[in-house]
Amino acid sequence: MAGRKRRKMKSLAATAPNNGAASSEEREESDEQNSLFRVPVDILEQILCRLNLKENILASAVCKQWLAAAISVRVANKPPWLMFFPKFGDLVEFYDPSVRQTYSVELPELRGSRLCYAKDGWLLLYKPRSLRVFFFNPYTKDVINLPGLELTYQIVAFSAAPTSPDCIVFTVKHVSPTLVAISTCKPGATEWTTANYQNRLPFVSSIWNKLVFCNGLFYCLSLTGWLGVYDPEEHTWLVRVVPPPRCPENFFVKNWWKGKFMAEHNGDIYVIYTCSTANPVVYKLDQINKIWVEMQTLGGLTLFASFLSSQARIDILGSQIQGPSSNGFIDQFQSCRCSQVATLLRKK
């Protein structure tokens, strides 16, 4: 009887699960999985630094080692600063929205100048009394002069920093609804090249810049939303048969063009409609189907709307639209108290 009991107990012991062995196997499997994520820190950082902000954040959730490495190489683009010209004097204000701090600096070089455009850390300025046109870098105070030109109602832009061989300055002004005058110039040139072009569709330029350089072409939005395109290599001008972006129904139709801005990012062109009583509306140009498509989400893009030159940024935490209250911007300089002219400028 005792022998049968012992045999029965032995049999039960043989069939019972071995908790110690199972936990050991699980640990081995867990260690094997963890070893897949154990990459030398220097190699891991080299991999993670090639990711955009969203991908970096996702990768940081893998494990503690990846989190530390992802944070060490994480770079979020800084928003543009806002630069304001004073009504009187030479004291210019810059506002950094990332730290909500204002800086003031004396810039007598800007006295008597009118700001035309800003890009890549450079201002394009015009002095009406002397017809002087010149670039100015507020960080280095470098000046690059252009030939004189009377700039009255032209809208103006340039393709790249004036230190780049790809820099082209472009101006367009409507002479009549079916005729525009276009002037171009490069740094180092002795004169501007001006030509008149006929339009198949009516084109009346706005008093505010709705003008971007994208994929080697200048794109310009007319007062009524028609899209003009200038090719500086071929010296051709065309008003494309693209129906204008629709003005939202809840916007003030009389003044809706005042809150219309244009920006470019990574080969795409955007039009932003703003109104004090409604949320902004953003359209993206579908180049293939030749239509403006309303965007339901910005997909990580941040737009900075300005009367003089608008900007778009990726990898700034959160998607949003920033716009001027009564002024414009300069690519990484911003301020919020002076009340005459402001623009966007990138801080190097």
TrEMBL record:
Residue span, KIB1-4 beta-propeller domain: 94-308
SUPFAM superfamilies on file: F-box domain (SSF81383)
Coiled coil spans: none
Region (Disordered): 1-33
Record domain F-box: where: 37-73
Biased composition (Basic residues): 1-10
InterPro entries: F-box-like_dom_sf, F-box_dom, KIB1-4_b-propeller
Highest taxon listed in the record's lineage: Eukaryota
PANTHER family: TRANSMEMBRANE PROTEIN
Protein's UniProt name: Transcription regulation
